[in-house]
Amino acid sequence: MPGEWSHHDACLILYPHNPKTFRLVRVQEEVINVTRAISKDGEEPVFLLCYNDEQASELKEQIGEEGIRIHTCPSDDTWARDTCPTLVWNSDTKQIEGLDWDFNAYGGPVEGCYWPCDKDQQIAKKVCQDILNVKCHAISIVLEGGSIHTDGEGTLLATEECLLNPNRNPQLPKVTIETTLKGCLGVSKVIWLPHGLDADEDTNGHVDNFCCFVKPGHVLLAWTDDNVNDAENYKRCRVAETVLSSTTDAKYRKLVVHKLGLPPPLYYTKEEAISLSNESAEAVGRVEGEKMAASYVNFYIANKAIILPQFGVPSDSIACDTIQALFPNRKVVGVGSREILLGGGNIHCITQQVPAPCSR
């Protein structure tokens, strides 16, 4: 699996349509803003995948921009990172191929965010065959794309909180899961962090909201020095730092740990909780004062830009400066994404890169 900073042929985005997850009008505006930023600033084509032909026709009239390709792809939700294929380089065929992980809506019929998820379970195969025209491999392990992150040189980041959760693969021991990851993704070392970000209960601690590679040998870790208002993350960040600082990557390099400050703790307002419930009687139970798993680590690396979440707080500009220093050759584009966050994820969660065949 190439590092996310390698050249992309395109980006996959699932256009929001599920009122159980989002306030649709507002979140659709944010997703269009993300799409345009990737296409224009990132200089990267975007496949915007719609729920049905009617939605696709409406979007074509609304957008109709060069670089944004609108297709129909039925889905249950909008998390392309988790339900679209994970695209990898086949060193034998010299081609990009897709991995179709087993998807159980983040925990199955009891603990999963939304069940059933029949349409989401078909997305990876459909995208590979009908949109990208690449070979698709069904992988018999429950996994979401947001639960893994690679440096493209043999090292993988994951959290035990997610991948070893009993609601994913209870019959599989850790060694079997790790062996599967190594075989499918072409990695030789998995670095296990104990937990993801506090309050990331929807995904059970996806690593892409907490820690990622920014280049080989360099990781970016969500961070807070607030031991009063964000005490749980204060502990989690330091435990993760200890793990990262005490290991090496697949090429025996000691990791350089960069820190990206978290926004101050963000909570669902009364209006947000009520409006989400009003969107659908089956909406997940968001409650006024419930903490959200807000993190700037949840950004997308486009060909020429970094598309960075913004929450309307003073730390937004600090995060932009931090990311700019780490990616001096890419433009940092901040995009408001609180409405996406209300659904339980952010910009990295709604995107999936299509690496170019020559990216390795």
TrEMBL record:
InterPro entries: Agmatine_deiminase, Peptidyl-Arg-deiminase_porph. Keywords: Hydrolase. Gene3D superfamilies: L-arginine/glycine Amidinotransferase, Chain A. GO terms for biological process: putrescine biosynthetic process. One of its GO terms (molecular function) is agmatine deiminase activity. Signal peptide: none annotated. Transmembrane segments: none annotated. PANTHER family: AGMATINE DEIMINASE-RELATED (PTHR31377:SF0). This is Agmatine deiminase. It comes from Cylindrotheca closterium.
